[in-house]
Each structure stands twice: as C-alpha cells, then as structure tokens.
Amino acid sequence: GAGVSQSPSNKVTEKGKDVELRCDPISGHTALYWYRQRLGQGLEFLIYFQGNSAPDKSGLPSDRFSAERTGESVSTLTIQRTQQEDSAVYLCASSLGVGDTDSPLHFGNGTRLTVT
Amino acid sequence: AQSVTQLGSHVSVSEGALVLLRCNYSSSVPPYLFWYVQYPNQGLQLLLKYTTGATLVKGINGFEAEFKKSETSFHLTKPSAHMSDAAEYFCAVRGDTGRRALTFGSGTRLQVQP
Hints:
The complex is a heterodimer.
Chain A: E1 5-7, E2 10-13, E3 19-24, E4 31-37, E5 43-50, E6 65-69, E7 75-79, E8 88-95, E9 106-107, E10 111-115
Chain B: E1 3-7, E2 10-14, E3 19-26, E4 32-38, E5 44-50, E6 56-58, E7 64-68, E8 73-78, E9 87-94, E10 103-104, E11 108-113
Parallel strand pairs in B: 2-11
Antiparallel strand pairs in B: 1-3, 3-8, 4-5, 4-9, 6-7, 7-8, 9-10, 9-11
C-alpha cells in the first residue's frame, strides 16, 4: 500500500489480557516509530526503530510494553496484562532513516485500544 | 532534553480571520521543527517543516510558520481561516543528538466559526 497501515483499527479487551498491535510501514522507510495518544492529550513517544540498530525504548512506560520489528518491515507492539490506563490510540509512523533527520513522519490511522 | 509547549489547547476564530497557533520549543542543538495536522477521523499529516535556511516556511493549505531562534518559537499562521481548517494541530521538534524521534506538543484544537 501507499501509506502506513495499522491493524486492528479498534480493539476492545478486558483488563489483564494481552494485546498485539501491528504496523506495516511504507516500503523503503527504514525508521519506524510508535506513539500513544490518550484522549485529549498529545502524542507520547514509545519506541523507535532504525534499521538494524538497537531500538530506542526510552519511551516505553513499563515492562508490560514491548515491541519488535522484523528487518525493515512489519512491527508489533505488545501490551501484556493490560490496564485501564492503557486505553488510548496507538499510532505508528515511518520515515526515511539515517541521514534524513529532517524527513517527516508518515502516520497510520492508529489503533484505538479500549481496556474494560 | 528537547520539549515543545503549545499555548492554548483550544483556539476559536471566525471564518476569514487570522489564525495564530503558538509553539515554543527547547533543544540543545539547532532544531528541526514540524507542524502536523490531524483532521477529524484522519491520521496526522505533515503541514510544514523547518530545517535550515529561510526562517519563514510555507506549507500546505495556505499555512506558514516562522522560526525565531531568539524567541525559541515556531508559531503557525494563516491569514484567513476556512471552515475546512478545523482540526487539531501539533508542533514537533527533533533536536537533541541521539534522540531521533520527534517530540510533540500537546496539540491545539482549532475551531472555525461561520
């Protein structure tokens, strides 16, 4: 596809369950980002992947959160033992990578997670 | 650490009036600055960016922003608001070396009154 694709678009889960969110970046984009947007708030950085470098995990809020990326393609964000405060829209973005510090991010439409 | 402050979580203007959305940043190195827009039920999209060179940057839909280093500001303006400009606007910075991810402000929701 032409843009960043995220699935599912909506996810409702019970407190304590694990969830997996998927992101397909734009082909050729070596950088991939996950952000979280709580209702009425700004974007909160979670994690950043760049090629084969070690990911920047400095934004992950707890050890219940983890993310993986296969090469320069699909990424999965996993939240274990979900809590109600995890309810938010999870946004994925991709961009051209190394040497393109001014390259813009291209965002997906997000996954709206609701923890009941 | 880099940070962004957007003054005013909600701004309301009349159609045809000037739009001014404020953004101040902090960065230990010369920053790259961005404005993104999020229309209702759509993903974020780039409005404009400043990297180097000319400090007045023009973007899509008639928006522009001016980088003022002395004021550490990157305010977004549009001379005449249109109803279709109603959206949420986010300012973002990529500055500090080693931190490649963008840091976003908390957003400003623009309402345009007929």
